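Notes, p. 3: input format for complexes.
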Amino acid sequence: MKIITTKAELTAIRTNCQEQNLTIGLVPTMGALHEGHASLVRNSVKDNDVTFVSVFVNPTQFNNKEDLAKYPRTLERDAELLSSIGADYVFAPTPEEMYTKEEMNDTFKFDFGGLDQVMEGKMRPGHFNGVVQVVSRLFYLVKPYKAYFGEKDFQQLCIIHYMVERSELKNTFGKLQIVDCPIVREKSGLALSSRNERLSEEGKKIAVNISKTLFDSLQWAKTMNVEQVKEQVINTINNINGLEVEYYEIADKTTLQTTNTFSNAIGCVVVWCEGVRLIDNIQY
Ligand code: PAF
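Output follows (284 residues plus pantoate):
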């Protein structure tokens, strides 16, 4: 496995792969890798001749400077994991290598057809502009055949599908396919996240109640309406010492707009625990 830090080297390697007609898989990440990322990489290794993994803590998608500063950076450990599961190339550029000064100031704008007006988009202004800015840049550079994303960030996944369907990427790469990968959970049910590293053992035990409540809500949905389930989820989590719900929305999986039926619905939650912002979701 080779670690690449410049766009020039990446482009040279990718061109070489294309000349040999090798299929390329891409797994974009921000590092601090865990089993959830590993599952994306394993899928890519299985499906493609060559797998590129990007490890880049993208400054333009953080609307909170403290969150950006605190984001774990563990390239050496990440590289060991990636090598052990068969990734071929790790692209780990500096922000200056990725962006010009203007781009760093997040001047990038994209039309998301309303998908970004709710939930994460509402709470983290500019977040999805930054995500699409970096993901589209990675697509242009790596020109993957398939790109892998986790369903834990469900809204991100919807927005990336939207971008690929509508942008010229669709014509440029014709076959570029976004592969949705299921949430990977600890045995306890806690959704794996790089942010879990910032939780104490006690915090992790408390945070288990987030997924537990979401799973319980599948039962509640059999007898309650959407509003009642929403209220019950929020109250149950907020009643646990150490957890505070930022939002819980039951939304249509396609439009991400609030819905009053459980058909094609997803429940998306953000909960604070020990100063860490945790995200999870459940499909009804
Ligand atoms: O999901 C993430 O880790 C990031 O948002 C992504 C897709 C790697 C873009 O920086």
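The chain has twelve helices and nine strands.
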